[in-house]
Amino acid sequence: MQAKKRYLLVLSCAFLAYCYFGGYRLKNESNLTSPHRMLPSYVDVLSDHLYIRDIESSPQFRRIGSSTYKKVNNSYRNCRMETCFDYRKCHSDFKVYVYPLNDEMNGETPLTPSPAYQKVLDVILESRYYTSDPSQACLFVLAIDTLDRDSHSSDYVRNVQSRLHRLKLWNNGRNHVVFNLYSGTWPDYVEDDLGFDTGEAILAKASMSMSSFRPGFDISIPLFFKSHPERGGDAGFVTSNNFPVTKRYLLAFKGKRYLYGIGSETRNALYHLHNDRDVVLVTTCRHGKTWKERKDQRCDEDNAEFDRYDYDLLLQNSTFCLVPRGRRLGSFRFLEALQAGCVPVLLSNGLQMPFSEVIDWNKALIMADERLLLQVPEIVRSIPATKVFALRQQTQVLWDRYFSSVEKIVFTTLEIIRERLPLQRKRDGIIWNNSPGALLTFPEFSDFWPHYPFHIAPAAAADDNFTAVVYCQLGAPLTPSSTLFRLIKNVAKSQHVSKILVAWNSDKPLPPHSRWPPLPGHVSFHVLQESSEPLIAQRFFPHPLLKSAAILSLDEDALLNTDEIDFAFQVWKSFPERIVGYPARSHYWDDAKGSWGYTSKWTNDYSIVLTGAAFYHRYYNYLYTEWLSPLLLKTVQQSHNCEDILINFLVSHVTRRPPIKVTQRKQYKEQPPGNSLRSPWNDPDHFIQRQTCLNTFAAVFGYMPLLRSNMRLDPVLFKDPVSNLRKKYRQIELVGS
Amino acid sequence: MVAKQYNILLNRYRRFFITVLAVLLISFLVICVGLLNLLPSFGFLNSGSIIYHKINLNNFSGVPRVPVVESQLPAPRNDRCNYFDCFNVYKCGHKGSGKILVFVYPVKEYVDHKGNAVAPMSKEFFGILQAVVKSRYYTPNPEEACLFVPSIDTLNQNRFNVKKTSQALSMLPMWHNGENHLIWNMLPGSPPTFSNVVELNIGNAVIAGAGFDSWTYRAGFDVSLPVYSPYADQLKFDPYQEREWLLLSSQVNIHPDFESELAQIESDNSDLFMLLEPCEGRENASLRCHQQKIYNYPQILGSGKFCLVIRGARLAQPNLMDALAFGCVPIVAADTMILPFADVIDWNRAVLTLRESDLNNVMTLVKDVSEERTKQMSAHCQWLYNKYFSSIESITITTLDIINDRIFPQNARSYSPGNSPLKPYTPQSPLYLQLTAPKAPGFTAVVLTYDRVESLFLLVQKLVKVPSLNKVLVVWNNQHKSPPPSSSWPKVSKPIKVIQTKENKLSNRFYPYEEIETEAVLHIDDDIVMLTADELEFGYEVWREFPDRIVGFPSRTHVWDNSTQKWKYESEWTNHISMVLTGAAFHHKYWNYMYTTSMPGDIKEWVDNHMNCEDIAMNFLVSNITNKAPIKVAPRKKFKCPECVNNEMLSADLSHMMERSRCIDRFSAVYGLMPLRTVEFRADPVLYKDAFPQKLKINNNIGSL
User: Fold this and answer.
1) What is the spatial distance between Cα A728 and Cα A722, in angstroms, rounded to a whole number?
2) Architecture field, domain B245-387
3) Band (A54; pLDDT cuts 50, 70, 90)
4) What residues form the membrane-spanning segments (chain B) (predicted)?
5) Strand partners, B208
6) Which CATH architecture does the domain made up of B443-640+664-683 adopt?
7) DSSP E strands, B562-624
8) Does CATH place domain A249-399 in 3.40.50.2000?
9) Is the ipTM of this complex over 0.85?
10) Which residues between 444 and 503 in chain B have a beta carbon less than 8 angstroms from any beta carbon of chain A?
11) Does B215 sit within 8 Å of A78, measured CB to CB?
């Protein structure tokens, strides 16, 4: 009994204590929330936001007129697309007009632009943006070379202002884009000093500072050398994607040092960080005519250290590369480091990064602060290995997609302007910052990114059916034993086919409806017969009847059985971005002729899969027709050949991967019975023509995009010694080669 | 008898003492908890001997009243400021903290000469202060602070006296012309001009403000905020609400010019576009009317696919937040406006923008958007709202995060991860560079071995015949026996390196050893001696084309067993593969690193404890990240059941299969899904089984059993 009482006592004591402290806590809490509850809201819904009429002046007036921003001191420092750009010119299509070189009628010497500017003009002139009719143009590009506006430079064009005045279309620069690499000159390098008034023109300029950059209006471009390739461009240096990225040096820089004047401080302080082991930052004062007169006590020491290192070796053997500002904010070192896959460490306070409107630079470089120069090695060391790995890969993606040629830089500039126009679909950061990039992703195709071949997870491939397109050139009579008849029958037996399209491109009459093989209910059948244009131009036309993502492209004399078709389709679903098919060919470099060769021999590798029997993504039809240079399409049309090579070029250019050959079939065409029907394939000229095509395409692309593969994909149990009944694709085994 | 009684007594006493002890312990604990509650904010010790007290936001009754001294007006906002000119970076990064430290001024009530409050505190501003103090950036010590937050409410310019507040700000002890000070504002300007930036004289201070235009916003310096919605607590989205309207306009404070334009659009598209207007005669902000019908705002937004957000008197409007919360894709018509958190949010994925003068084209714009895109954008809107805008606290923290990223850009987030909620945008494989790996570096063969020396030596002799082999790394997992002396090893032309492990763990096989200098790693069991040099060389060739995948020889698959509702491990001859066993497989060294450092859940420990399924775990890991299937090379071989620990008895074999099925079940539970991908193909040499002269083929010796 006593014990029980004792329990009770202790328990009640504990309870009381708990009540006391717990209660205290509750009180405390109510205290905590009370001021919050009592306070008024920052906004009074009725008076601050709603139910008051807007003030009197019209929105138009308030947009343009009331702001004192538009014009300050008669310069156009505050231009925006809304205030300095005429959208009315851009309602139909985005076209660019380039002034002709000999526009000046006053007998003034015609100007020859510098080679670099000539490249800029050339790529526009040969592009799909170009129009020769100024009334159709949305954007105007000057023929006057404005790249180098350093008045000390030999490329400096004089009297630009008066030349501009004589241009009828100048219109104070409205809707013009002015390309520039250098402005201002020694000793101040005034950024805005181009030696003429750019008026309301958009500046596409290198070395722009954040303070003079007009957001959403100007475009910051990278500083590139005069020798930068016009198109194609060199590949990035990263060929091996090793992890962790272990290079001999952690951080490297080799460059000029300015003894005095603007931009000299940072480079002059670099020697503090140089340790000759993993941080190699070497500078020289040996440049310009008068360096000896001005040299300081460090110069000789620096020069000696400078000569010990080779720049190219540093680029290749360093994980990070320092990119300090030059006299102007930009530096050539930037693109060099990017190409080399040496992660740039930017030291250029206030620089507006190139194409920063669309490119997420945090994924490809390290921004450092000139004020905190001494912390740079420590910052760089603290970056985890996985991040370095990602940064390095991203340098290559960006280099490859936006910077490696003048063409890419100019097109990126134009695409950024295009996205600003009303009713143009905008590509988001994911598209811009991933391969294949915005220059190869046309939003007109679809605004839903999973419709493109690059962004689907293979397992979730959108739809499980394909459209077969049979391309008929020979027009052989259609009988139940003819190849075409059997082909269509075999295709129709596949469970995945939803539509069969026959493109009839023969002078022979189209067989009547009753002659075609009967098709199962779920397969729709269409015949296209367009006589107006040669059908070779139509082969990869994005026809509205083509709805499925997968297209099976077939020649009329292709030999494929249903298992082969189904298996190839299964493989394609894993590689929707590539061409997956049967007939493989390869290209090779012919050293003797100094040109590319084409071969249909059986070899251990291949680089082309012919579209006589292949699956590919519908998006490539769109790119083929809407993106490829008109020059390429003309080549195909004139030779009436090579369209299948061209699409291989295109797909490899986009994916940077080889095509995929599936299973064994080599001979995919019926041997022509006798000589009654001459297939173009037996024509020796045909073959030489294809060789010529290969070289023309490589020249227009600026490089050879085709890549080799030395494997093919077979069904898992292909020719394995197990019962045939266990195998899913049995017919494939019956195919001889 | 006595003994029994004694026993009972003893038992009773024992029970009594145990109970007393328990009670005492419990009450002691309760008292301790209570005491801890008593000491919530006694301050803590900081550098040196000065004790800094955490700011007290709990009690407003004793707030000191400070009269604002009549003084010269401080310097106006410096509109040329940028991060490098006006922000003092030397104040940041103290003691290697690697993040900004933010000081909040103690709350004071500033009054004018009549005793009226100059800038009375609002609920939202109080929330901001509270969020700052609770955040990881807060410091009570102004000496080490990098950013200063004045506790003067400047959210709504209509609510404070502009001149007096400017003066009050300049009275702050560490003001220094606003250097490194952060001014919060959501409603700038006042009638009739409605400036787009708060008109305080704040010198070089940073503004976190809503409604900037591109002229007033100092990029890289200011932070653009949303206008916090007064309906925030009602923004509860009902996912079952049908979106019957293509376009909604529910804003009531827009200019008559816009109103007439919208009325015109409505009359042309009355079936698609609903123009909501204020209800006549009712002074209620949360009601809207359309053709005599009354709707509740903001709930009505859930019935629209697109919602118009048009500039009112000010550029930024709070209904942007309402539309986001309801997944009604905003169409923003406010020229030159800087959208909230434009530094980190990729708005192209969530909103459509329209120039004000193109308002009459709005139907063309919305009709151009595909159904799929609309759904995606709508989901993205809601995701953005929940992540960044749903509370004052998340707005505050995001603002501080943005400033922190500017000062420590090397740690900054890039836009993709912060903006990727949806599956089609799954993070890219970390090995995303589209590259055929170079041939020259070759591969490193890693052989995990315990004591099968004979077979090991045989394997090594076979391996060195593979032309692209760079090095053999033998991982000696036996702690009881040392590896054979170097003299007894076969004499071979390629380097062999032996690593003696400290513990017999299966995960040693996947450790990213420094000795692996090549990208490609061939993992091979010490008893896999049946692969020919041609097969291995060809395997390496195939890996070079798929450097992000596991490429190897023995393949397996997984199947769903409908009867047991479980996954089953399948090693029969099937038409599918979803795993390639690491008993003989190539993969990138990066996966070794991922296996060692980033294996989800307790999989790694589980594998080590059970000495099984490390290969399944690796296949899960790679497929989950890349979303791709592994690649099987060359025809099937008679491997001596490489995964069997002992293969003497059929029953052991069976239990082994059961165990591996359990592994698949267990791992997929950890991942929350089945990451494995199934394919129906394997890789063969281009001319495999072709009737073609052997001497012209490479990789001939492939496929013998």
Assistant:
1) 12
2) 3-Layer(aba) Sandwich (3.40)
3) very low
4) 16-39
5) B184, B223
6) Alpha-Beta Complex (3.90)
7) 566-570, 579-580, 584-588
8) yes
9) yes
10) none
11) yes
